[in-house]
Amino acid sequence: MVLLNSKETQAELGWTSYPSNGWEEISGVDEKYKPIRTYQVCNVMEPALQNNWLQTGWVARRGGQRIFVELQFTLRDCNSIPGVAGTCKETFNLLYVESDKDLGRVTREERYTKIDTIAADESFTQGDLGERKMKLNTEVREIGHLNRKGFHLAFQDVGACVALVAVRVYYKRCLATVQNLAVFSDTVAEAAFATLVEVRGACVNNSEVDTDSPPRMHCSAEGEWLVPIGKCSCSAGYEEGHSSCEGVTAEKVVGDSSASHSCRVGCTSFGWWTTLDTRRKLWRVGKPRQHCSS
To answer: I need a surface site. Which of 29, 107, 155, 278 has the fewest CB within 10 A?
Structure first.
C-alpha cells in the first residue's frame, strides 16, 4: 500500500523547509525524462556549519505499522568541488515524527526520531555533470512500530550537495485472495522477524467449513500468503467451480462426442431413467426415447 509517492505529482510538493536558504524545490526529469518535482541543497561553499531541514506533508499511515521509506537521490563528491569548504559532507539524515494531525511546519528538532544517516553508493563529479550522467542512488529504510494516526518525514542536511529525486512511502500487506473455497481478506504484514500472522478464512457462498480442518493461511512479513491449511466444501446441491460453488442443474455439460444418439444409463429413485445425449453433450433425467444404439 503506497502512502506517498513524490513522482506521482507534477504540481508543487509544497514541503516545509527551514531555513529559507536551505532546501529548494525545483522541476526536473527522471531517468525516463518524465517531469518530476525534486528538492536539492548545495551550500557546500559556506564556511559555517549547515543545518538545513526539509519536512514532508503529513502522511496518514492507514493501518500500516511497519512503514518503508524508499529514497532516490544524487550526491556530489566533495573532492570534485574546487575550493570547497572543509565542512562539506557526503551524507544526510533521515528522520520522522509521529502525530495525529498535520504539524504544518518544521517542529522542534528534539521531537524527531532519527531513522538513519544516508550515504550514496555512487557520488557524482564535475566530469559526470559535463557528460550529463545521473548517478542515481536508491536506499530503503524501515520505520516501526507506529501508533499515531500518521507522521512526517524529515531530511536534515549538514553540509552536502544532494538532490532528492523521489520519495516513496509504503507498507506491505497480503492482498485479498480465495484459497480452498475460502476468502482471505487484506491483511497488513506485521513487523520484521515476527512469526507468521494466522488468518482465518470465510467460506464462499454455498459452501460449508470443514469442522475438522477450518481454512487458515499465514501472512508473512513480506506480504505473501503462506502455509494454507484446511478448506471449505460445497454444500449439498452445489459443485466446485472457479473459486466458487455453483448449483447443480438437471443438465450438465459432459464429454466432447459429436455422435447423435442417447443411452439409457440407470434408474433414479423416482423411477425415471437417466440418459446421456451425446450429440448435445447433456445428461438428462426422464423417460428415454430409445435404448442405447450405436
So the answer is: 29
